[in-house]
Amino acid sequence: MTNRISTTKKGNEMTVMKPDRNLPAMTRRQFGLSAIAAAAAGAFMPRSVFAADQLVVANWGGDAVTAFEQAFAEPWGKLNSGKLVVDGGGPSEGAIKTQVDSGAVRWDVCDGEMYSSYRLGKEDLVEKLDFNVIDKNLVGFGDVHDFGIANYVYSYVIAFDAAKFGGDPPKSWADFWDVKKYPGKRALYKWMSANLEIALLADGVKPEELYPLDLDRALAKIAELKPHILTHWETGAESQQLLRDGEIVMGQVWNTRAELVKKQTSGQIDYTFDQAVVSPSVWFVPKGNPAGRDAAMRFIRMTQEPEVQAKLMEVYGMGPVNPAANALLSPELQKISPTAPENIERSVSMQNQWYAENYGQALDKYTALISG
Q1: Superfamily of domain 154-278+348-371 in the CATH hierarchy
Q2: 157 phi and psi angles, rounded to 5 deg
Q3: Taking a C-beta distance cutoff of 8 angstroms, is the pair 88, 60 a contact?
Q4: pLDDT of 32-68, one tens digit each?
Q5: Which GO molecular function annotation, any one, does this entry have (predicted)?
Q6: Omega of the bond leading into 280 within 30 degrees of 0 (cis)
């Protein structure tokens, strides 16, 4: 892994560890699997590469590294003398387990999958959060539990070719499945997230009745659409390209990528928050984090401030979990924020506890379906 990371410094507040942008793009899951392999080989950069007074925050690399720098460096610098470091090494469950079990923890706070925080907590691999420091009442969207707390929100939305369907655009996942009214190829996300929910919504299940997910019913509905699915995209860039190049007429994509391709095509590709599936990312703290439990809790609390949340939305397109942040956004940003009032009320929230208990077997069945 060391040959995939370079070091840069901007100002005197943060050191950023970035993956090499020239390497092939990787999904969160792919990056996590490679991290497990690298950890097993002892290839993680040792904590000693960071100064003793630094707090190291792990995320999934790419643009998220720069976004975290822009949103968190300045407010953290005002609270602490040490620097904040963003390491884009991909805090997968396997990576956390390897670090904690080996006693060589290198991350202080991790931006990870919400369902992973449930499992890591159950395995005693992450610290119990201190709600005397962190204010769980500030989280209006997303999960809060003893070992994880939502830090921002993203959505899976319907993006479509407005040149073909602009007069009567799709407004639901039932429309997404309606190949007679909206003919043309589609694309879905390869790693299943939100696919089960959208399939059940397309099949007529009410949002409030989604969970526990009926896996077999969802897979049967996906199988029904399979002849019309051109591909199952792996990276956000791929989903953009499929739409931009006209290879598909609509796709299930992340809201951030939908907004980017809308700008790239001057509105030829558009999207809707109608029935968007909303999912939070999460902060969790590995057991034995080097900077100490107190520093990690203070960092998490800092990121809950409305101004910090609004800044992250500005630079990263991820919806604030603190509702007070929306009032600080410009009208233009409120239109594209997943948690802005008019968008969240049309959306469906993903229940990550179901994924924590069922993800492995569900993914195996889903993968077998789409690869068969």
Answers
A1: Periplasmic binding protein-like II (3.40.190.10)
A2: -120, 170
A3: yes
A4: 333 333 333 334 455 444 445 799 999 998 889 999 9
A5: thiamine pyrophosphate binding
A6: no
